[in-house]
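Changelog entry: the Amine oxidase domain-containing protein record was regenerated in this release. Current contents:
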Amino acid sequence: MAEDSIIVIGGGIAGLTATALLAKQGLPVTLVEAHHQPGGCAGTFRRGPYIFDVGATQVAGLEPSGSHERIYRHLNLPMPQAELLNPACAVDLADGSQPIQLWHDPKRWEQEWRYHFPGSDSFWALTAKLHQSNWGFASHDPVVTPRNAWDLGQLLQALRPATITSGLLSSLTVADLLKLCGCEQDQRLRKFLDLQIKLYSQEPLDRTAALYGATVLQMAQAPLGLWHLQGSMQKLSDDLMHALQRDGGQVLLRHRVVGLELATRGMAWTVSIKTPNGKALELTTPDVVCSLPPQCLRSLMPQGTGMPKAYRQRLMKLPQPSGALVFYGAIDRSALPKNCPVHLQRASKTPGSLFVSISREGDGRAPAGQATVIASVFTATAEWWGLTESTYQERKQTALLAIRQTLESWLDLAPEAWQHQELATPRSFAHWTGRPNGIVGGLGQHPSQFGPFGLASRTPMRGLWLCGDSIHPGEGTAGVSISALMTCRQLMAQRGHQLRVAN
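Regenerated structure tokens:
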């Protein structure tokens, strides 16, 4: 390979974004993806006439100066067709009250939370101020986990008085904010926050960083927003693939990276790859961008391949992310409630709190008059491994029935209304995405893992970079795009060049 080549491992949105940005800079870059299609957890699959989004079903960052909009503009791509979600979600606390509607208009949202959570004004005022500080800080493209002088300079340039003030709360959780505002006894508010925040942080409110939670709670409101893509989530991947190939980037699909080794004197990397026909391929490059979960590095780099002992120990101590059970169903649209929202969330002990996405008429996911229904719930990955095949299938069928019956009760559906139904478990996600144990998100956003306390995109091994949902700012297609941009800016600076993406 060329002396200035770069290899990007993993073709999810983070890896695709990194490859497209580097190709735009004119660098010889190759993306290596184990699956037959890109997208990862934001990919899709087809069952007959139905198209299902694998994991992610809604998008942030399409608004002006949003992360996707900035990158699309930088890559000279037309923005994808998308519907602004209003409400973004209807949250049912399963206590007999009306669902809480997440309205896009801040004034209408204020009326909503005042009605459902009287006396919580100080909490919402505080989280709004924290979010404004966060967003102003993020707009300057800081390197949030600095590891050298250049990184630190980028961080300091992004700081403002409001950022420094809000930074004093970096060790607090969302539950601490409730306590500060005198709202800790409002059980309905706590339940709502638990449901919404865990979708993004994989942690409940008493273990989610206050600064992270404050922004999560504002994502649906203007000037931000959540969006429903026309066609499917695959549109993001297809657009990024077009950009990177247009600009000279190479893609190796169905090629699995099985090893990384830092060469003598630490000047180059040997990337060992298994090809589709089972043969071995080795590529040498000075820079590797890894968008896989960082837990993968331990197996890709066994002892003696260049990983410092302290870094290996840190990776060993990383908390285990969650897995998911995802029900994929199809139904006649006439069976659904009138004016059914695209996204719903409902509290439930069994099978757990469900997040539900329902396709729109004409959005390309189902034939006319029908709809796809995707319902997901977090699960511990360990519960699905080490089982005999019969035990696994029995447990899978039990989980499918529990989710389906919950949907039938919630949406008043008859069991015979389903045109299609299947369930994905952590085993399924391990097969589709290659993520260890089938994890579906990054590191939980506990204060000890958030922002400057989390993993850095710049590893202690020269030329090895990380991006993705375990790197600041966390999961979601918008979040991993920001992490990819941060990593590419660092990599380009290391080579003596600048990468600027206009706001």
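The chain has three domains: 6-45+59-81+230-319+441-494, 86-224, 323-438.
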